[in-house]
Design a protein that fits this description.
heterodimer, A: mainly alpha, B: 131 residues, mainly alpha
Chain lengths: 113, 131
């Protein structure tokens, strides 16, 4: 177990803390509440991962990519929010928008470096 | 604040420390999976397992009014939030597209989400029926 691996685990904890803090700050200010906040954090994290991958550094990919941004972004919370969404229309928006925006953000991040 | 709807993204400010600790455990588990599986498979497995587990845990939270508890903060937004990942899902999707495998890319996305939503629902179903 290398020092980089331990750094990645620590960074993942920090990412999770940033996600919860970011969600709390955003959710009362946005239509759609916490589900919108989670989607924004996820899309921002996907864009940031594009930047990290574009640097070509394996250690950055481990610590900042798999660690920090893996911990910052979440799939489980997103899926439970979809499962709890009130209407079919809300389910579709909550599924499609983050997927399209997240892929675009990641590709943009890749292209920027 | 009690009027705010309960959501799986929520933990109190005071819960942030245990979120970080849970997040470290979730990240370690995900990185561990990546040691034994190929990255794309590890991300898929973590995401589906995590969606199932969070669906269950969130249903239990409702049953036991655990919303403000440190246990929820550590295991929900912390452990399972960090165990699963959205950014790596997008990496797999976009990289497979760029490598010229659109069927793989859309298939990976479709399997992840097509099984992820039912996984969360099954977890909730089990959690609502447990005593």
């Amino acid at each position: 177990m290398s020092g980089w691996w331990i750094a990645a685990v620590a960074a993942g904890g920090v990412g999770a803390g940033l996600r919860v803090a970011g969600t709390r700050l955003l959710e009362t200010r946005l239509p759609g509440g916490a589900a919108t906040a989670t989607s924004i954090v996820n899309v921002v994290g996907a864009g940031a991962l594009g930047l990290v991958v574009a640097t070509g550094s394996a250690n950055a990919a481990l610590v900042l990519g798999a660690g920090l941004l893996g911990g910052l972004t979440t799939f489980s919370t997103w899926m439970v929010q979809v499962d709890r969404a009130p209407r079919f229309g809300a389910v579709m928006v909550l599924l499609v928008v983050p997927v399209v925006a997240g892929a675009a953000a990641f590709a943009l991040g890749l292209a920027l470096v | 604040m009690s009027a705010r709807p309960v959501d799986p993204a929520d933990a109190s400010w005071a819960g942030l420390v245990v979120v970080v600790i849970g997040g470290m455990a979730g990240t370690a588990a995900r990185l561990g999976l990546e040691e034994v599986l190929a990255t794309a498979e590890a991300v898929l497995a973590a995401n589906l397992l995590g969606a199932l587990a969070l669906g269950w845990l969130f249903a239990r939270l409702h049953a036991h009014r655990l919303r403000r508890s440190a246990v929820w903060a550590a295991l929900g937004p912390g452990l399972l939030g960090a165990f699963t990942t959205f950014s790596a899902l997008q990496l797999e999707f976009v990289e497979q597209l760029r490598d010229g495998y659109p069927l793989h890319a859309f298939g990976y996305l479709a399997v992840t989400i097509g099984l992820g939503v039912p996984a969360a629902a099954v977890g909730r179903w089990i959690g609502e029926r447990a005593t």
